[in-house]
């Protein structure tokens, strides 16, 4: 589609470094968004901007009533419609975000859109079987091709027609069966040009409509009245004769097919029914064939105009020539020739054709690029006499091989290539023997130079002669420059040379010397070259923030949540009442340490990356959270204004990624050996082929008579005249490891027991004794000093191992750092430049060279004018003037004059200095990924660290910074539960029906549930009131900086050692109803974040549920500042609707003491000694259980059922009287009758 063509255009613009790729990408995205939105509107159905997929969706949507549609069809159509609409919206949004700096990232996203559209267009259920084409020889099936039926299905509606229906297509046949998979199946068995048409019988009249014109049909004669059958053959009356000229110039970055890591490539070109091959070039991945292949008398059928607009494709396959066996397939590419008909003029703009790069593919992977041009010339009635002559260069005599003609081959100029030979590193064994006497050979376009021989690689892997040069003819067009090949050979006994490894520098553009005017920093783009030397007269004043560095204020610091309170409890700012202003207090600098600076920097990084950690209240509703969020912006402007601690730079990735791998003048070239793999991820397979590194650099420039004299040319060193010596140098390397994050679990319990291992040269340190138990985010806070000698010990390996009680320790991951490049870099990565200069305190200057010395050395090395220190805190370097304070405080508080602040200000803005300026590495912490050799490319965690390096021949540095983790401080929290009120009444009295509760309060600190404490029970509260006067005591270890309680405990009875947990400081209070014969009933709870919780209400009436649900509006306090707080807090619970309801109130007093204070003034738990609390004033319940039955009877008889009781008693008396009467009547009557 046009989208694919557009994206390919953007890629080509970026590759050839043409102007405005972002404009083309915006156009493609605009077209895509219009195309996606248009299918909802049928009136735009025939818009030329639509791709066929959107048109198909429109037609399908319009035809909803069609019979035979399954549920899958309908649901899939819904999915396609919604997805395409979403893609349209995303493309529209992304169009406005495309800028020059982001064009590469947005191009990737646009390609994702394209692949998603392709996926949606794929039919999940094919109702028509595919077409198979078989090639059979001697009854054996030797090759086949499978053509999807949807691609050749005919429809009279253009949008519904298959993309290959009714077209002459080139199809490649492949090997059937298992042999067809993998590299063996990539070679083409046969190429056929075929015309396919699949349609209904009633559409048969259209089946020949797509064939090239100029043919006669040969049909079988059939009986009268029978439908005409398709012709058995076609005879073309129109035949065009052409000559094809294939200009094969060069290829680069080809597939390494031999065990040496090189190939012997040749190209085979197929066109129509002819094929030709180029010559074989031995042992190279970047061959320059410079060869013209002429295909004579190529017969093509059809009308001339059709052939001109759509010529057949040319297939170019690359092979590796082997002395034994068949040639190995290396890759394939396709091209279309530029066609010239006999009646056309051979001249601009189309002729002669320009050389172009064609991407070579091997399976699904890219396998290099080929530079070539193709022209198809029609032979007219006068024969070949009318064809343009082949003007080859006269100075090349290559026998029958024709070179590329003059008009097409690039225009060459003489270039000089200077090579800096620095050294070789990490060379692996070759044929089981160690490399001992290596040499580097450089070759470009047939010319080259050899380095000096390293006489003993193990003793000193650097070269004795640093710079050599050679001259070579190269194309003036920089995009057509051939690659430069670097080969390392080992000189062995009896004059044998063994190839160790090779590297192809595919693009030389970054090594071209542009001259001083272009190399200078872009600090004044309006200055012309002629004015360059008068520039020093123009003075540019850089205004700096002159806030004295010695006045420091603690900042808001938190690793995992944003808070309004300071970390070290030093009274940073307070909220007293709702309307009160926030206050700042100057801090005691002696309380600050390196971690204060680190945490402040972490917060800054978090703000910059807009990662706002979640700190929503546990007991908050959505409404409450919303109000809290609305409140935040009111505080933000203040937070931005407040002065901060001196910070360091926290890099979320490796330091190398921000400083171009420290390859400002010394480059590392990986050396490869062995056959390349065929994995999809080419980078992973290439890692295994690396056999070492060549360190050096290149500089190339045109050689001409009028070479500018300002070129810093030296007879021995050429352009490399400011580089240091490469003699061995002793260095003290100081490694600081702060922490590791997201480590890969190494134990069966899903955790790890990590410790640090350092390896540099022959020195190996394993800090096994200080492993951290069961942690995936361990805090190490360690520093290690290692002495090293460059260049022998140049690669530092920092590993994290998992400690195991039994067996060997497992490697979790490691990171490797090239110290040598850092040491010699102009970015000065030896010791980071701090933002402010101090001679004592947490921000003490740690480099043995002071800022003034560093600045003087940089100005001397860069041949700059300065530094000139002037009055009123000014310093001038070149034409830049910087301003800064000139006073510094010593440890006793005395102020004295110094130029260090001025020099440091210049160093922090060194990139603004003309010519020699570049960004200097600041004081920093870098975050490096941990990788495992057995799991390449998969991150096993990350490590935060930094490295300082100090040459041994200079002043010794001071002691290492103390970055050991802060020890948690011991605290004791005393909570007195005085009273409760309005507690919900849970129990019903069986006899009296009276509501009551047997109240008690439970409390614990989060993470210490096993240490929960309960008050005694206030029995039979019928008003919800309870009196306790009960004291809870909670000792805990607390980290001020992180606002976390530290708990160390064994995970199980079988655990070997204790595991450390860090948990937010939160107090949980609950109110319960005690039951004797069943489980206690939970009534309500409140959780108080000890750093930030609502101030307690003074009276029960003022205590409302708003204190929990609307925290953001309440005045907040911190127990670490207030120390002692008393008040009423609400108990809440969720009702059936999952909403909070008030279930009681508690009057409590919170008192925080340090461990020392708690020891001096001990108290007892509950109401025990020492300092016992008074007994509460409760109703007497001693005989409660005996009195309850009588009270119940009295209530029943006297109150509730009085009249009923009287009636029952009266009825019982009457009944008794009647019973006595019946009982006594017989005896009485007998007495009367007998007259007794």
TrEMBL record:
Top-rank taxon: Eukaryota
Record's keyword terms, sorted: Calcium, Membrane, Metal-binding, Repeat, Transmembrane, Transmembrane helix
PROSITE patterns (UniProt xref): C2
Pfam family, one: dsrm_Ferlin
DNA-binding in keyword set: no
Region: Disordered, residue numbers: 611-639
Topological relation to the membrane, as annotated: Single-pass membrane protein
Gene Ontology biological-process entries: plasma membrane organization; synaptic vesicle priming
Transmembrane segments: 1201-1223
Biased composition (Basic residues): 620-631
Molecular function terms from GO: AP-2 adaptor complex binding; calcium ion binding
Record's keyword annotation contains Transmembrane: yes
Residue intervals of the C2 domain: 226-351, 398-524, 714-832, 953-1104
InterPro entries: C2_dom (IPR000008), C2_domain_sf (IPR035892), C2D_Ferlin (IPR037723), C2E_Ferlin (IPR037724), C2F_Ferlin (IPR037725), Ferlin (IPR037721), Ferlin_B-domain (IPR012561), Ferlin_C (IPR032362)
UniProt-annotated location(s): Membrane
One cellular component (GO) term of this entry: presynaptic active zone membrane
Family indicated by similarity: Belongs to the ferlin family.
Protein name: C2 domain-containing protein
């Amino acid at each position: 589609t046009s989208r694919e063509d557009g994206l390919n255009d953007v890629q080509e613009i970026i590759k050839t470094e043409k102007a405005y790729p972002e404009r083309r990408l915006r156009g493609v995205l605009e077209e895509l968004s219009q195309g996606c939105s248009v299918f909802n509107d049928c009136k735009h159905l025939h818009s030329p901007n639509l791709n066929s997929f959107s048109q198909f969706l429109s037609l399908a949507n319009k035809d909803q009533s069609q019979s035979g549609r399954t549920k899958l069809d309908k649901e899939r159509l819904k999915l396609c419609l919604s997805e395409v609409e979403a893609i349209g919206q995303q493309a529209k949004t992304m169009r406005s975000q495309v800028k020059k700096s982001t064009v590469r990232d947005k191009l990737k996203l646009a390609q994702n859109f394209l692949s998603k559209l392709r996926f949606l267009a794929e039919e999940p259920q094919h109702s028509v079987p595919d077409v198979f084409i078989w090639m059979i020889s001697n009854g054996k099936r030797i090759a086949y091709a499978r053509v999807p039926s949807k691609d050749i299905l005919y429809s009279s509606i253009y949008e519904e027609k298959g993309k290959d229906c009714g077209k002459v297509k080139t199809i490649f046949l492949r090997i059937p069966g298992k042999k067809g998979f993998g590299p063996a199946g990539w070679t083409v068995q046969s190429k056929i040009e075929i015309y396919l048409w699949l349609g209904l019988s009633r559409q048969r009249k259209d089946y020949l409509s797509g064939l090239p014109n100029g043919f006669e049909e040969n049909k079988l004669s059939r009986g009268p009245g029978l439908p005409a059958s398709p012709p058995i053959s076609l005879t073309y009356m129109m035949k065009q004769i052409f000559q094809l000229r294939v200009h094969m110039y060069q290829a680069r970055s080809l597939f390494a097919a031999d065990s040496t890591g090189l190939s012997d490539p040749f190209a085979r070109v197929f066109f129509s029914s002819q094929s030709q091959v180029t010559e074989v070039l031995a042992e190279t991945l970047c061959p320059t064939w410079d060869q013209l292949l002429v295909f004579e008398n190529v017969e093509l059928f059809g009308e001339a105009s059709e052939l001109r607009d759509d010529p057949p494709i040319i297939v170019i396959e690359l092979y590796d020539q082997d002395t034994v066996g068949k040639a190995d397939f290396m890759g394939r590419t396709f091209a279309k020739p530029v066609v010239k008909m006999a009646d056309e003029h051979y001249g601009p703009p189309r002729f002669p054709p320009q050389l172009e790069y064609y991407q070579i593919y091997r399976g699904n992977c890219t396998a290099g690029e080929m530079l070539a041009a193709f022209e198809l010339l029609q032979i007219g009635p006068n024969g070949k006499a009318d064809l343009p002559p082949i003007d080859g260069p006269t100075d090349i005599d290559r026998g029958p091989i024709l070179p590329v003609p003059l008009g097409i081959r690039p225009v060459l100029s003489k270039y000089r290539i200077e090579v800096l030979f620095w050294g070789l590193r990490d060379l692996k064994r070759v044929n089981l023997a160690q490399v001992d006497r290596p040499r580097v050979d450089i070759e470009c376009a047939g010319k080259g130079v050899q380095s000096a021989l390293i006489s003993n690689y193990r003793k000193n892997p650097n070269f004795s002669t640093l710079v050599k040069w050679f001259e070579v003819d190269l194309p003036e067009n920089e995009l057509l420059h051939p690659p430069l090949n670097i080969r390392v050979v080992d000189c062995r006994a009896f004059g044998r040379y063994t190839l160790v490894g090779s590297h192809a520098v595919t693009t030389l553009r970054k090594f071209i010397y542009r001259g001083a005017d272009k190399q200078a920093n872009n600090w004044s783009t309006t200055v012309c070259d002629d004015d360059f030397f008068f520039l020093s007269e123009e003075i540019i004043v850089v205004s700096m923030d002159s806030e004295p560095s010695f006045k420091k204020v603690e900042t808001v610091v938190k690793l995992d949540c944003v808070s309004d309170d300071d970390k070290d409890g030093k009274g940073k700012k307070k909220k007293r009442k709702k309307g009160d202003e926030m206050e700042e207090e100057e801090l005691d600098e002696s309380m600050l340490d390196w971690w204060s600076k680190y945490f402040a920097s972490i917060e800054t990084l978090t703000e910059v990356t807009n990662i706002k950690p979640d700190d929503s209240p546990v007991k908050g509703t959505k409404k409450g959270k919303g109000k809290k969020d609305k409140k935040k912006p009111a505080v933000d402007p203040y937070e931005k204004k407040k002065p901060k601690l001196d910070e360091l730079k926290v890099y979320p990735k490796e330091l190398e990624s921000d400083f171009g791998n420290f390859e400002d003048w010394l480059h590392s070239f990986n050396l490869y050996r062995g056959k390349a793999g065929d994995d999809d991820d080419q980078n992973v397979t290439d890692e295994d082929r690396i056999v070492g590194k060549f360190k050096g650099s290149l500089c190339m420039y045109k050689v001409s008579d009028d070479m500018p004299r300002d070129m810093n040319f030296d007879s021995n060193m050429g352009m490399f005249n400011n580089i240091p010596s490469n003699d061995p140098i002793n260095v003290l390397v100081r490694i600081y490891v702060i922490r590791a994050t997201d480590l890969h679990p190494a134990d069966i319990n899903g955790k790890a027991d990590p410790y640090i291992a350092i390896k540099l040269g022959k020195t190996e340190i394993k800090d096994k004794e200080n492993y951290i138990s069961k942690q995936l985010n361990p805090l190490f806070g360690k520093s290690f000093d290692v002495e090293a000698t460059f260049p022998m010990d140049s690669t530092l390996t920092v590993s994290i191992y998992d400690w195991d009680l039994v067996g060997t320790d497992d490697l979790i991951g490691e990171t490797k750092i090239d110290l040598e490049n850092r040491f010699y870099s102009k970015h000065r990565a030896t010791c980071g430049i701090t933002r402010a200069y101090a001679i004592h305190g947490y921000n003490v200057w740690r480099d043995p060279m002071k800022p003034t010395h560093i600045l003087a050395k940089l100005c001397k090395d860069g041949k700059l004018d300065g530094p000139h220190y002037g009055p009123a805190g000014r310093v001038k370097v070149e034409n830049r003037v910087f301003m800064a304070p000139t006073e510094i405080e010593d440890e006793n508080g005395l102020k004295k004059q110094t130029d260090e602040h001025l020099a440091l200000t210049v160093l922090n803005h060194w990139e603004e200095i003309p010519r020699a300026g570049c960004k200097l590495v600041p004081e920093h912490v870098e975050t490096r990924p941990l990788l495992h050799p057995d799991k390449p490319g998969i991150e096993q965690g990350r490590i935060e660290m930094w490295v300082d390096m100090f040459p041994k021949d200079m002043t010794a540095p001071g002691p290492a910074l103390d970055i050991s983790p802060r020890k948690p401080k011991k605290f004791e929290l005393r909570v007195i539960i005085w009273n409760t009120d309005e507690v919900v009444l849970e129990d019903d009295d069986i006899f009296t029906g009276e509501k009551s509760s047997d109240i008690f309060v439970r409390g614990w600190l989060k993470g210490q549930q096993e240490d929960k404490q309960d008050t005694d029970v206030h029995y039979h509260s019928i008003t919800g009131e309870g009196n306790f006067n009960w004291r809870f005591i909670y000792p805990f270890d607390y980290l001020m900086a992180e606002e976390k309680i530290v708990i160390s405990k064994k995970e199980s009875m079988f655990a070997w050692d204790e595991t450390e947990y860090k948990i937010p400081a939160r107090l949980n209070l609950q109110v319960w109803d005690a039951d004797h014969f069943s489980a206690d009933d939970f009534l309500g709870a409140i959780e108080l974040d000890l750093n930030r919780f609502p101030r307690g209400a003074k009276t029960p009436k003022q205590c409302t549920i708003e204190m929990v649900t609307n925290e953001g509006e309440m005045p907040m306090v911190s127990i670490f500042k207030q120390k002692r707080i008393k008040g009423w807090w609400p108990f809440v619970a969720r009702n059936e609707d999952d909403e909070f309801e008030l279930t009681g109130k508690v009057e409590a007093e919170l008192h925080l003491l340090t461990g020392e204070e708690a020891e001096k003034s001990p108290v007892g738990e509950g109401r025990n000694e020492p300092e016992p609390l008074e007994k509460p004033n409760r109703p007497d319940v001693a005989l409660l259980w005996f009195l309850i039955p009588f009270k119940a009877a009295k209530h029943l008889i006297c109150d509730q059922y009085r009249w009923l009781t009287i009636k029952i008693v009266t009825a019982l008396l009457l009944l008794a009287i009647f019973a006595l009467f019946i009982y006594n009547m017989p005896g009485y009557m007998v007495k009367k009758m007998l007259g007794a």
